[in-house]
Amino acid sequence: MHFTSEQRLDDGSLEREFILDSIPGILWTPPTPSPAPLILLGHPGGLHTMYPRLVGRARRSAASGFAAATIELPGSGDRPRSADAEQARADLHRALAAGQPVDEIVDRLVIPLVDKAVPEWRSTLDTLLSLPDVSGPVGYSGGLIAIGIRLAVVEPRIAAAGLFAGSFVPRSMFDEARRVTIPLHVLLQWDDENNDRQLALDLFETFGAQAKTLHANMGGHAGVPDFAGDEVNRFFTRHLR
Amino acid sequence: MHFTSEQRLDDGSLEREFILDSIPGILWTPPTPSPAPLILLGHPGGLHTMYPRLVGRARRSAASGFAAATIELPGSGDRPRSADAEQARADLHRALAAGQPVDEIVDRLVIPLVDKAVPEWRSTLDTLLSLPDVSGPVGYSGGLIAIGIRLAVVEPRIAAAGLFAGSFVPRSMFDEARRVTIPLHVLLQWDDENNDRQLALDLFETFGAQAKTLHANMGGHAGVPDFAGDEVNRFFTRHLR
Fold first, then answer.
1. Contact between residue A105 and residue A138 where contact means Cβ atoms under 8 Å apart
2. Closest chain A residue by Cα to residue B213
3. In the list A132, B134, B162, B170, which could disulfide-bond B141, CB 3.0-4.6 Å?
4. Crossing angle of helices B47-63 and B226-240, rounded to 10°
C-alpha cells in the first residue's frame, strides 16, 4: 500500500488516498485518539463521482470516533473496464426503462462483481488493520449490499453491517443472506427508483441475524434524511465500541 | 380535573394521578423548566396493568424534556364495561386462536372504541394544556394506533405521532390514514403476535404524511429494543421542540 495524497479536513480528520495492488482507495481517520474501529464504506463504483457523498459519510463516522475506508470497484472509475459488466449494465438500464424483468441481468452483473470485489476488500482489510491508527472490529456500511452480504458471511472480522437497500441483489444470493448472523441495520428508501421494495422487504425477512432492524424513510434513492444517517452511526456505536 | 395523588419520581419528574369527567388519568411533568411540550401515551386499556410500561415511557419522555399524560380507555380498568366490547374482545380471541378472519370483529371492537375515546382525549387535552407546566405542540405516542390515526386527522394540536403498529386497525379506517399528514414514526415488531405484519406495511404505505418513517425490529409485541424507544424520543424532539 502506498499513500498518494494526504489532507487534513476541517473536522480534524485525516484523509489519505492510497493505491493497493493497483486498486485506488481512500482512508479517513478521526482526530480522536487512535486506533479507531473501522467502517468500510460500500458504494456503487466510481470513487471520483461518489466522493462528495463518501466524504460526508466518513465525516459522520469520524464524529463518532470511527475510521472509514473504501476502494474502487472492479470495472469502475479508473480501473480497467469489463466488457461483460458493461454489457450487463446496458442491458439492465434497457430492461428497467422497458419495464422488463431484470433477474437474469442482475445475476450476470452483480455476481461476478461480488466474486471479484470481496477478495479485494478482504486483502485491503488485512493492510488497513496493520496500520497503527486503525483497529477492529470492522463494520460494512452502504450500498452494493450484495458485497456487504458476502463479506458478512465469509469475513469474520466484519462484526456489524449497515446495508442501504438501494441496489439490486440477485435472488440467488438469498441463500447467503440466510447465513448472515451479525447485527444488521437495513436502510430502505420507500420509493427508491434503483430498487424493488418488495425484494428489499423479502431480503430483510431472509437475513439470519437475530438483531436486525429496518429503517424505511420516504423518498427516492438519494433522499436519505440526515437523521437516518445518524441512526446508522448509533447502530455502529452500539455494536463496534 | 382534580389530582388524586402526587409523587416525585427518582428522576425528578412529578407524577400526578387525576380524575377528569369520571375518567382516571396520569400526568407526568419533567424536572426541567416548564412549560413542557406534551406527549399523549396511547395504550390498549387498563392503566394499573399498563403502569410499569407507561411510567417507563414517561421517564424516557421526561429525559428529553417532555411532559406525558394518559387516560383510561372506555370500558377498561376501573371504568364501566361495555357488553358489546366485551363480546367483541372474546370473539377476537376465539377467532385468532382458531386462525379465522378477524376483520369484521376488529371493526366491531375498535371503531366504537375510537368514536368514544377520541373526544375524551381531546377534552383531556383542553384541560392539560390549561395547566401552567404543560404546553403544545402535542404528540401522540404508542399503541391503539386507531386512536392515534383519528386524533391525527381531527385534532389540529397533535403535531406528530409515534405509532406502535402492534394493534389491529380496521381496514375501514384506511381512508382516515390517507388523511394523516403530520410527521409519523411507525414502530413495527416484525413478529408481533398481536398484529398482522402485512397490514402494518399496507397501513404505512397508506398514510398521507410526507415525513413518515418505519422502524422494524425483531421480536414479539413486548420486545421493542431500548434503542428503538430512544429513536421515538428523538423523532419527537425533532418535531415538537
1. no
2. A217
3. B162
4. 60
Partners of residue B203 in chain A, C-beta under 8 Å: none
Selecting from B211, B218, B225 the residue whose C-beta is nearest the C-beta of A218 gives: B211
Task: Say how far apart CA B195 and CA B190 lie, in whole Å.
Answer: 9
Architecture per CATH, A2-79+111-240: 3-Layer(aba) Sandwich (3.40)
Does B137 sit behind a cis peptide bond, omega within 30 degrees of 0 on the bond before it?
yes
Domain ranges of chain A: 2-79+111-240
For B36, the enclosing helix (H) or strand (E) is strand B36-42
**What confidence tens digit (pLDDT) does each residue in A186-199 have?**
999 999 887 789 99
Please report residues of B whose CB lies closer than 8 A to that of A238. Answer: 227
Does residue A34 surpass a pLDDT of 90?
A: no
Q: From the centroid of its chain, how far is CA B201?
A: 19
> Using an 8 Å Cβ cutoff, are A88 and A44 in contact?
no
* B112 and B83 Cβ atoms separated by less than 8 Å: no
Residue B51 has a CB neighbour count (10 Å cut-off) of 14
ipTM metric: 0.89
The architecture in CATH of the region B2-240 reads: 3-Layer(aba) Sandwich (3.40)
Of all residues in chain A, the one with the smallest CA distance to B238 is A227
B127-137: per-residue pLDDT in tens?
999 999 999 99
Which residue among B205, B212, B215 places its CB closest to the CB of A213? B215
